[in-house]
Amino acid sequence: MLLQLNNIFKWVNSGGQRIFLLKDINLNVNEGEFISIMGPSGSGKSTLLNVIGMLDGFDEGEYHFLEESVHSLKEKHRANLYKEYIGFVFQSYHLLDELTVKENLEMPLLYKKFKGSERKAMVADMLDRFNIVGKKDLFPAQLSGGQQQLVGIARALISNPKLILADEPTGNLNSAQGEEIMELFKKLNEEDGVTIIQVTHSEKNAAYGSRIINLLDGRKV
Amino acid sequence: MFKLFLKIATRYLLKNKLYSFINIFGLAIGIASFVLIMLYVNYERSYDKFEGSENVHRVFMDYLEGGEYVPGDANAYIVSGPALKEEFPEIENFVRFRRIRDLVVLNNNTPYDGIVGSLADPEYFDVFDHGLVKGDVNTALNEPYSVVLSTSVAQKLFGDGNPIGQSLKIAGDATVTFTVTGVMDNTNRNTHIKNDLLISFKTFYTWKIFENDWKYTWNQNEYYTYVKVAANTDVELLNKKIMAFVPKGFEFKERHHMEPIESIHLYSNKPYEAGTNGNGNNIKLLSIIAFITLLLSWMNYMNLSSSKSLERAKEIGIRKVVGGKKSQLTLQFLSESALLNFMAILLALGAVFLLLPGFNAMVGQNLGLDGTQLTALMPYLGIMLLGASLAALYPAFVLSRFNPAKVLKGQVQTSKNGLHFRRALIITQFVATISLLICTLMANKQINFLKNRPIGANLDQVVALKGQILDRAYDSIFYKDFDVLLEELKRSPYVAEVGCTGTYPGDDFSNMNSNIQLTFPDGHTDETHIWYNYGARPNYFNLMGMDFVAGNAFLQTAEKWSHNVVVNEEMVRFMGIEDPNALIGETIKFWGQDWTVSGVVEDYNHFGMKSAVVPIIIRHDRNTQNVLVKLDQKAITMAGVDKALNELEQTWHQVFPVSTYNYTFLDQKFQALFNEDQKFAKAFQIFTLLAILIASLGLFGLTSYTCIQRKKEIGVRKVNGATIAQILQLLNQNFIKWVGLAFVIAVPIAWFAMDKWLEGFAYKTTISWWVFVLGGLVALSIAILTVSWQSFRAAIANPVESLRDE
């Protein structure tokens, strides 16, 4: 088992009232799964994704990730955990505008203390794998949305994470580009065994996954 | 509309308390420092400004020093004034002052000392444009034995009664009575030559006190002489003519020279000045600091306001979408600025009122925020308003320029130009603060250097006793009683040694003679260099801890007076003699007499550490001006200094029951010679601290700006594995680079400024590299601390916040 959420609650207090963002979420994810989280706006999809990605905390419940109890870990250990095992893909790509494609890919490696030669090899490999060698010296602004998201995914994958978390990865793309990205996810999942959890609005995109989780008002339905 | 703007502005300021506080506080510091410094600067520059003062000049003497004329004493000869007036029609009038030292006024045998007074020509009132509150200006100083008092002295002597026609005596000659003929108001009269009491100059010719003085010849340049030239006179030309003028019967190698009276207080520091003058260089430096702090605070304001504007992008977008015009938005932000500036000015003025007493104590002045002072500040108010509006316009324009469509989509516009501009502001601020820091450190180093420099004499526990005998003349009986006094003092258990001297290191010029004629042992007569002499009794050297390099002190003689002299090493060099021993027993000539050199003492700094060692001759003289008492260290440690001082005073009054009495600790008086510089260094320090504070506020603002701007980047990097330390490094390294750049620019500026400042000192400390490094490091640490406060918050922020896709 890759991760397990048991009775996760998350809330905020507003005007004396407790508003639940997540309510009693139970979820088991095995390695190699491709899960789609669906639900209307404000149903807690992104919050759940952030909790899984350890970017956000929760107020109650247990979270096990690769036999580690995330809920009892200190902030620093938690950060180390997600840095090592989780890659993030965003709707608006979140590439750094001042860096070239190559440098954007290299950035996570810098923080993981890889040697210069290793970094070069890994970046070259990733550029190759995604067929973007020719774009390596371009800046994000010079790429199309689909190409930018491609770089975003490549960056998420570069340090070999076990889990990719994608928050509406095709939300800013046209249908053709979106399809391309989804095909890529499918390929990554099937051929490389990468576990993927994506948040999506689209039934079509959700269908790429092996399992769909529906959320409504912070609750699994 | 405007009312609405103000309302919104107030709400906005209240909502952003920290921002408003920093902004208002920063501005207020700048304005308050500026006002305080300018009050002081204006005061220092207000000396000798009166109706027609631009036409009044002081006549002083230039000496021929090694073949070139150099400014000599501040005073001229008794006949200088009349001779110049007769020769040059441009000179309309002149006035001479003869200072009366240690003036003690007796009113019905009650002595009053501490009054500054002079003999003065009746033309004083015309030349100095000074009227009388009581009495007739046209006749007040015409008759011998007439005196004019200042209102404060008149009040002290006669209370509220009418002083005109009252009589008083002056200690030293009880046989004559003076009549008060006028009262002048000296309040608000800032002058380098203070006079609380003026005696008609005619008195001089018959008064017994001056019976031994030269009255009609070119001898004794003891007369402060001021001339009033006709308006529109070519002063430069007149000065040239005066310098070339050789009056009849004038045989010294000197020449007359004029200087504007308005510049004396700040720019003249000659021997025998009428009082301690200010330091024009310090005033200039202080003015520069005043403008720097003000500029820094404006830069700060621009910086903070424009960086804060980013947070308001959305508000602006909405305002524009609902139809707000650019001009309206500009006006809105301008009214905010106006409100903020107004509050800052109020706060600053409040601070000035509160800080003024402390500031006065520090600079040793009594500055007030009264009408005249405020009027003097008016021109600067214009500058302040202009600067404030410019500073306010910048953020207003930046804010109103935002493109609404983009800001509403959440894209904060980050103009590269804006960033460059703010960066330039910060670098400029740091150039200023680092320069100030280095200068402060250097100034302190110099003062410590001077303080710790050996004087060449031991002034510890030496007290100079001084007083005036009021009931009798200085005759042979007095000298006998004086010896009794010395014997009595010596007997005290607190006293280690007793001596007598005309003057001592750190004393004023009053018992010091300057000379320009000396015949060396080889018969050569030098007439082109200044040297000094004073009288002392034999045990003076021992008491002062002055070491002999050759020979010895003069021998005690039965008549207590010999033609022996002791010279210092500089004098030996002046005579061109290699071996001091060769001079012992040799004869030199001055004042038309022969003198035998009995000893050579090590060089010592007579005029304080700011001036170099000068050639000095100490004559054997049965001096009575200053009784020097070396206190016994052990005895006073046991009993306390106060007890010892009490006993000294009692002894003095036992021997001379009717007399005034004062005591001075020599070391304190010597150190007081750089009081001015110390005060200056302290002021410099304080305003440097304020400048640093302001610059830090600016940096704080810029960091918050950068952090907002790079929020997304920080989020992305964190999600991709960056640690807090790495983010901190990322955010801080640029600031460190800027401080580094500022340091590189500041070093030559500070170097140049300090090099100039040190020119005013005879003994200079070295401009050491560590001062620069220290200054840079202090600035750097402050910068890192300030920046980290903000960047740490940005670094620990949850990336979820910044990466939300909406």
TrEMBL record, chain A:
Record bears the keyword Lipoprotein = yes
Pfam families registered for this protein in UniProt: ABC_tran (PF00005)
Spell out the InterPro entries in the cross-references.
AAA+_ATPase, ABC_transporter-like_ATP-bd, ABC_transporter-like_CS, MacB-like_ATP-bd, P-loop_NTPase
The keyword Nucleotide-binding belongs to this UniProt entry's keyword annotation: yes
Provide this UniProt record's keywords sorted from A to Z.
ATP-binding, Lipoprotein, Nucleotide-binding, Translocase, Transport
Q: Which GO terms describe its cellular component?
A: membrane protein complex
* Protein name as it appears in the record: ABC-type lipoprotein export system, ATPase component
From TrEMBL, chain B:
Q: Please give the PANTHER family that the UniProt record associates with this protein.
A: ABC-TYPE MACROLIDE FAMILY EXPORT SYSTEM PERMEASE COMPONENT 2 (PTHR30572:SF18), MEMBRANE COMPONENT OF TRANSPORTER-RELATED (PTHR30572)
Q: Which Pfam families match?
A: FtsX, MacB_PCD
Residues in coiled coil: none
Keywords of the record? Cell membrane, Membrane, Transmembrane, Transmembrane helix
Return the protein name: Putative ABC transport system permease protein
Q: Where is the ABC3 transporter permease C-terminal domain?
A: 288-401, 686-799
Location of the protein in the cell: Cell membrane
Topological category with respect to the lipid bilayer: Multi-pass membrane protein
| Single Gene Ontology MF annotation | transmembrane transporter activity
Query: What coarse category fits the chief subcellular location reported for this protein?
Result: membrane
Q: Where does the MacB-like periplasmic core domain lie?
A: 20-242, 534-635
- Would the keyword Coiled coil turn up in this protein's UniProt record? no
Q: Name one GO cellular component term.
A: plasma membrane
What transmembrane ranges does the database entry give? 21-41, 285-304, 338-359, 379-400, 421-443, 686-708, 735-754, 766-787
Record carries keyword Endoplasmic reticulum:
no
Taxonomically, the superkingdom here is: Bacteria
